[in-house]
Amino acid sequence: MRILVVEDDPDLGPFLVRALEEASHAADRARTLEEARGRLKERPYDLVSLDVTLPDGSGLDLLREIRAAGHSFPVLVLTSRGEVRQKVEGLDRGADDYLLKPFALDEYLSRVRALLRRGGARPDPILRLGGITCDEAAHRVTVSGREVALTPKEFSLLAMFLRSPGVAISRSQAVNSVWKWSFDGYSNVVDVHVSALRRKLRGSGVRFRAVPGVGYLVEEETAATAGGGDE
Fold first, then answer.
1. pTM exceeds 0.70, yes or no
2. Would residue 167 count as lying in a domain?
3. Is residue 230 part of a domain?
4. Are strands 53-54 and 57-58 parallel, antiparallel or unpaired?
5. pLDDT of residue 11
């Protein structure tokens, strides 16, 4: 199961990620609301562990956005404030469970297990755009029915773009999500992999378009762009 930990505490955040990974989950961390929104656009999650107090606002605002977008995955809200009003507000906005800080790790993991058993409707693992079909569960990509062999990093990069067609994704976002290291501004690893994807997905009716100063986006080709090649 993949879990997003939205927690700015420099000690607690990495600790929870490590504990979840040791419990055989895949875990990503976001330190701010903005970073969490980016993570949620990049990939589907089975559960979100959400701190209420974040540097750029309230986690309850993100919770409201999650439910307004139609996401039904469980959300475990963490807070150091124990007032009944805060609990009621969180539950009213769509929280599935509430845990007050400080808490025992065993209790946290128990709450996570319980929420994952209850579950929610996971987004469709089949991503489609133009002639491309990307099956995230089977780790398989086809172009108009023809299977295309991609490396693990190429597959992860393609899936990230297909989850947000028409949305510009920065090189920094791509490096953080796919390679799990910080982008230093000098690496061309994203450009190299995009070039490989362009070659392997030729004839799919989909193009990677360069966005100057940002990165790339994927979009379906039109009659006006089909003959112009990728930028």
1. no
2. yes
3. no
4. antiparallel
5. 95
